[in-house]
Every structure is written in structure tokens, then in C-alpha cells.
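Section 5.1 Outputs to date
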Amino acid sequence: MPEPTPLDPARFRATVGGQTVALYTLRNRHGMAAAITNHGARIEQLLAPDRDGRLGDVVLGHDCIEQVLAGQASMGAFIARFAGRIAQGRFALDGQAHQLSRNDGPHHLHGGTNGSRFRVFEARQTCASSVEMALVFADGEDGYPGTLSLRVRYCVTDDNALVIDYAGLAADRPTIANLTSHAFFNLSGEGGSSILDHVLTVHADRFLEVDAAAIPTGRIDRVVGTPLDFRRPTPIGARIDGTHEQLMKVGGYDHTLVLPGGEPGAPRHAATLHHPGSGRVMAVWSTEPALQLYSGNHLQGIGKGGAVYGPRTGVCLEPQGYPDAPNHPHFPSAVLRPGQWRRGRIVYRFSSLPVRL
């Protein structure tokens, strides 16, 4: 299989909503590269080597800005103000009720109609391996109280990792925030192929039970004896079509896995994804308390090189806080007070196994 061609920045140059869109290419000394557009602070390409050193594109994405605008809105995007769903788009803060936009049936999803995935960030490439992006959400946008200033920094390191550092500041009023990256991974390097043969390990012994709308019920269950137990390496497809009620409710995996506590603010090893065919391994490190596992159950569309993105052709491993946290007092709080930052780091580190197991 030939190595993929780097994306053409000229095909992403555009003006959207009066703001300039561009594509920024980051490289390390060993050939690994990432292409990030400031439309949605979106990862469009990520080139990582297989066991033979051949580069392959390990994320789903698009060839041009027109495809981005017409495609799956979350694909590759950085998600803010709030990752995941908020039931009925409602929550209360300090005794005051807030009604958010409803963009997922009666519910609020991924920050609503003006969430970061639809926005153009200010961007500045600081060196060959790093780009910084910034966005300000105004008080009252999508019903959220308070101004939220968001900063995101992408960096490709010489140990073959994509590092995402992010911070949201409550500028003037109490508000809520839950931040993550929504990249769809396929470590085979073949866009449109299944991810069911990928072997997943997640260091989580609990998960959030969800209802048929994929919203947490508030119950935190143990993974033991369920298809959500990935504490040992398990192919994603091994149990995905089983009859467990949690799988049947959402058509596969779309669940929050609760990570064990670590040193506050320090990244810890959350998960490992391995593709036996190529030998590629991706380790996920994070400062977040949970990991959203989404098996691409509803993917559809055309991606890079004309690849058909169908269900289960990409998997998301999204470190984040708990979805619907404002409506469950026993969940870790998503509240930010004026002057308070919500900071985090996600690391996707790539390596390979020398032989097929």
C-alpha cells in the first residue's frame, strides 16, 4: 500500500462566516505528521508508521473545506463548550435554571448549534511541530451563562505522540465546561475499513449506565461481567453485537468508562488501541476522569480519497469529564467559577509491535 499524500493546504483556504480558514501541518523529526484546520480545531490527517516504518493515515477526515462543511460535524473536532449530551438541554446552576439549544432531538449535544465544531478558531503556528488556537464563547450563546475563553495547543513530539493541551477560562460568570478531542481513529491506515479487529484495552472498572438516548441515568456500574470490560486486551468486535441491554440501547459502544484516580493534573495511561494487521499501537494518556468509547455506530459519508465512511469504520477514544454532569450532583463537577480555568491534556502516543500476534 503506498504511503498517503499529505493534505493540500490550498484546498482548505476559505472564508467561513467572515473568518479565514487554513490548514496547519505539524511534523516531528521522524516523519510523523498531523494536519489541523482551525475550522473546529479539527484533526484532518495523522500519519503514523506501521511495523515496517511505512506511514499510514490513522484518522478519518476530509480532503478539503467543502467536505468538512458538508460532512460529519464532530469528525476530528475539538469539542466545547460541553462534550456529550445534556438531558433536555436543561441544567440549574446556583439555583438558576438554564435552557440550552436542543440539537439532538430534545437534548443538547457537544455544545449545541454554536459549539466549537462549527466555529473558526484564531490560529498561530508557533514552530514546525506545534499550533495554537483560541476561541471565545460569548455570554448567553446557546443558552450558556458566562463568557468562556478557550485555548487549544496541538504538538507532534519526537516520541511519535500527538499532544493536545487545552484550557477554558470562566471570564465573568459561573458556567460549565467539558472539553475533549473527537478524532475517529482507524489504525489500519485504510480509510473505510472496519475497526472491529482493533484490540482495545481500557483501564476502567466502572461505566456510566445510559438510556436509549445515550444519556447517563446517573447509575455507575461495574464493568465486570459486561461487554464494557476492556481491562484485558479485547477486539472491539468481539462482543459489540451481543444482547446486553447497554449495547442494544445505542447500537454498539457509546459509553463513558470511568478511569481510576491518579495524581491530580498528571496524565495517566487510560487506554491502548492495537491493530494487529499493521502492528500500530496507540496509547492514550489523559488528565481527565473518564473516557468516552464510541464505535462509530452511525458514521456515514465520503472521506479522504473517496473512502466511504460507514458504521464502525472509526473508533473514538475521548478523554473527558462526565456527560450530563450538571444534572447529577454525585458526578465530578463541571462548574467553573469566574477566574477559574479548566485545564487538561490528552496524549495519543504511537508505536508498533514488530510481529503480528
